Amino acid sequence: MIIPILIRTLTRGAVYALLASGMTLLFGVAHIVNLAHTAFFMVASFGVFYLTSTRISQVSFDGPGWPVLPSILVTIVAVTGFGMLVYRLLIDRVRQHPQVVLLITIALAMVFQEIMDFSFEGHARRIRDAFIPGSTEILGESISYDRLLVVGTAVAVMIGLWLILTKTKLGIAIRATANDAEVANLMGISVSRTLLITMGIGTGLAALAGVLTSPLWVFHPHVWMGPLTMVLAIVVLGGLGSIKGSLVGAFIIALVENMVIFLLPDYGYLRMAFALLVMIIVLTVRPGGLFGTIFEEERL
Predict the structure, then answer these.
(1) pLDDT at 232 over 70
(2) Is the pTM here over 0.70, yes or no?
(3) Which of 10, 13, 89, 198 could join 251 in a cystine, given CB atoms 3.0 to 4.6 angstroms apart?
(4) pLDDT score recorded for residue 266
(5) Domain assignments of the chain as residue spans, ordered by start
């Protein structure tokens, strides 16, 4: 069972890494928790499903619709732009009040849920055709090209994110804002623009995760709830504000979930409970998380 567990851990861990790094980045820079983060993930899944299976001339899900690549690009751009608009109109106005941000973002997530529920009649959906048809054999285990696409894309995006944060002027602005927004503003950095871009990056990562999983996982209007719990657990497990911690935590949680599914198949429904138990154990030993600190904020 080792090979199947590892292969599925890589896939699920890659998705969690995309989601958790986006939420961690926004928390590290703006110091807010966006509970609507995985709702954008859900919206992106429905968005790419709609574009690839709906004829332009009629609203019916009998396909074929748009080609895959334009559908993916349009979905990611549209969801990212919508996330930035939400930040500018709603979150930015109250970001100094964390409790209000929590209420607004969870309300937004539920609004998105009801809109998708109404638009798609509450049915679970899944893209019928693979983005990349076919599979290959790795260590005796067959793995679809779509799973390899998820892992490869996640690795490339994480490397790109690291390069942006460490090698570009935008990265300097993001890290400076994360360390001290007031000093960054005095040095000529537009804090408001930096936060807006950060929200765009985080939402874009969530949208990318939603698009990549649409041919692999069944999604429905309530699908954002489970990943939200896991992503919050990963962010806390890795250390608040630590992207490195989020990446490590994502694969730890994914490994625990898959071990429960494969080793205890009759109790697979307890995978989230076991994952949260691991988080509790780690926090008991290291209250600041794997790469967090107790006495000061983790810096990007």
Answers:
(1) yes
(2) yes
(3) 13
(4) 87
(5) 2-223
